[in-house]
Amino acid sequence: MSRLFGSVRARATLAATLVVAVALVAAGTAVLLSLRSNLLGEAGTQAERSARDVATALAVGTRYGELNLDVDDRPVQVVDESGALVAASEDLERITGTGVDAVKPQPSATAGDTGDEGSDDEDDSGDALDAGEIGERTTVSDGTATIDGDTEDYRFAAVPVETRRGDRLTVYAGAPLSAEHGAVNTALTVMLIGFPLLLAVVAWVTWLVTRRALRPVEGIRREMAAITASEDLARRVPVPDTHDEVARLASTTNETLAALESSVERQRGFVADASHELRSPIASLRTQLEVAAAHPELLDLDGAVADTVRLQRLAADLLLLARLDAGERPADARVDLAALAREAAEGRAGVSVRGEGAVRVAGSRGQLGRVLANLLDNAQRHARSAVEVSVRRDGDAVVVAVADDGEGVPAADRERIFERFVRLDSARSRDDGGAGLGLAIARDVAVRHGGTLTVHDAPAGGALFELRLPGARA
Asked: What is the pTM (predicted TM-score) of this model?
């Protein structure tokens, strides 16, 4: 059960069904209440109409015994101001809800009938009394009545009336609530049968729709599981033709796999190249130590020190690249690039620095100094006689240009030289050419500082390396 409701499909189906169920219950309750209110109001209107018909007859002087109280088998009571029953429906056997339980008029109550022996003569002579008055206010109540053996629920309307002789009476007339009960029960039955069926349809449709919508996701999951099991990063997940969120998820997943594959390949190449570069100085140092152990007089101390220094520098370069690849954020110190350039050029033959006063950027002084040192090392390695460094502002950016008068960099190789362990001149020695990490480190540091490092043709005909960094805010 927990596994079933742990799926998105089951949760979506359950949520949709619950939402529809709540909506149906609310709507059904509102419909039933509205239907019941309307039917009760109609029953009250019918009861009031019947009561006013009887009250009208009493107001014009109709005797109690001559009242027509058995229309449509509805219960009617006429009560005087003392609460005594003076008239009632003929077949009325029992009644509740009117406040008067009596169903048969008492002889003493009918003795003062509204009619009198001389009423006809008075009417003929034109001396008849004025008609009585019917009250405007109607009181409504609910109760039951038994007529000719049948008991039903009724809505009663009470209408006050004053006869032409001044008698104050109250007429109670009832309208049956059987139609209201029948309609409400029928509607309730229909809802009790229809709502579960409708909820079943909603759940079934939601289940089918979510299955179809999530089918591509399941395909992506299976393919990712296969990629994880096989460790084959060249595989890709299927992209559906729906152009929706699932398709965008598949596309993003493939982009992530491509980036991961490229990163893994680059890491493998990096490890292989690093191993190859480390093997040479280690092998040379081992050879010298073995010779020195056998023939101490043949020890090349300067060569051993040089190999050790080269090995130390290579290890430092590899460590810096590893930190850059790990996403290490540079420090947020304020660095004067002009002063840093003069410091990096100090003691280097043929290197000149020109630039403005204080030109500051935000970043790591050590890493930026490493960039300038690597650019100067590269320029001196390829320059014929001179290297020129310039530092200037360009809008909100700071530009450091390192130019040499060498042969320059072919246009086809101007991006490749920033790859790791790349050396364009394969004939030169490793001791003179380095490991091919300097420019790669310089560009990585520039990118980490929000800048760029590019190469162009220098005015003197050599290479011009341009480092562009955002200037520090005041």
From this structure: 0.52
